[in-house]
């Protein structure tokens, strides 16, 4: 992050009299809802590349992609969260995340912004009645008049997902960029 951006953030907190910790998140859209992941987990954001499908994998596992010689597993968060499948648009993007000593591509509808959120503005996760665990939601914050769900992307992945991801990345040879 640039020094000038950090300086402005620090000056804004000092001007408001707040010395509270600020967390940064990358917000994105899925099915007209907003989600965010910690910015420190994000390596980069790219346009939707060619993805090679892999047989006998879960439906939300889109396949693998080549990113400058590195093989990266790609999942579709809509399908992982059991949402309706979306058409690919020019705004469809892949967030490359560094998790569990590996990289993972996550397909999202669009990238919205980088959020700087004071810790006091993050609400606890509400109790959600569901047969599926919602431990992957770490909190909720507001952006304008919308609520943004803060995700722990590692918790969204099941043991099967992590195994598939590691297996696909470990057996692939390095490919020239």
If you had to describe this structure to a student in words, what would you say it looks like?
With 177 residues, the chain is of the alpha+beta class. It has one domain: CheA-289, Domain 4 (OB fold (Dihydrolipoamide Acetyltransferase, E2P)). It has four helices and ten strands, in the order αβββββαβββββαα. The protein has helices at residues 3-15, 77-80, 153-156, 159-171; strands spanning 22-30, 33-38, 42-47, 61-67, 70-76, 93-99, 102-108, 110-118, 137-143, 146-151. It has a five-stranded mixed beta sheet. A five-stranded mixed beta sheet has the order 3-6-7-5-4. A hairpin with a 2-residue loop joins strand 9 and strand 10. Residues 1-9 and 11-16 have low confidence and may be disordered.
Any key phrases for this structure?
5-stranded mixed β-sheet; 177 residues; OB fold (Dihydrolipoamide Acetyltransferase, E2P); single chain; alpha+beta; disordered N terminus; 19% helix
List unreliable stretches of 5+ residues.
1-9, 11-16
Q: Can you identify the CATH class?
A: Mainly Beta
At the third CATH level, what is the topology name?
Answer: OB fold (Dihydrolipoamide Acetyltransferase, E2P)
Measured between the Cα atoms of the first and last residue, the distance is 26 Å
Order of helices and strands: HEEEEEHEEEEEHH
Instruction: Profile the largest sheet.
Output: 5 strands, mixed
CATH superfamily: CheA-289, Domain 4
Helix content: 10-25%
Report the β-strand fraction as a percent range: 35-45%
Average predicted local confidence, pLDDT: 80
CATH architectural name: Beta Barrel
Structural class: alpha+beta
* Arrangement of strands in the largest sheet: 8-1-2-10-9
Number of alpha- plus pi-helical segments: 4
**What would you report as the Rg, rounded to the nearest angstrom?**
17 Å
3D shape: globular
Quick one: how many beta strands?
Answer: 10
Structural domains: how many: 1
């Amino acid at each position: 992050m640039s020094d000038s951006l950090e300086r402005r953030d620090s000056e804004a907190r000092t001007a408001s009299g707040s010395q509270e910790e600020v967390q940064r998140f990358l917000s994105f859209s899925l099915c007209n809802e907003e989600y965010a992941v910690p910015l420190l987990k994000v390596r980069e954001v790219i346009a939707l590349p060619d993805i090679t499908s892999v047989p006998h994998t879960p439906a939300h596992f889109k396949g693998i992609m080549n990113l400058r010689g590195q093989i990266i597993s790609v999942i579709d968060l809509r399908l992982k969260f059991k949402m309706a499948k979306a058409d690919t648009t020019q705004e469809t993007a892949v967030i490359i995340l560094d998790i569990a000593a590996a990289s993972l591509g996550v397909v999202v509808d669009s990238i919205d912004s980088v959020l700087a959120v004071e810790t006091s503005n993050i609400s606890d996760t509400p109790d959600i009645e569901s047969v599926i665990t919602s431990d992957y939601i770490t909190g909720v914050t507001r952006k304008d008049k919308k609520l943004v769900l803060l995700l722990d992307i590692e918790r969204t992945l099941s043991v099967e997902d992590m195994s598939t991801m590691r297996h696909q990345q470990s057996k692939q040879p390095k490919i020239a960029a």
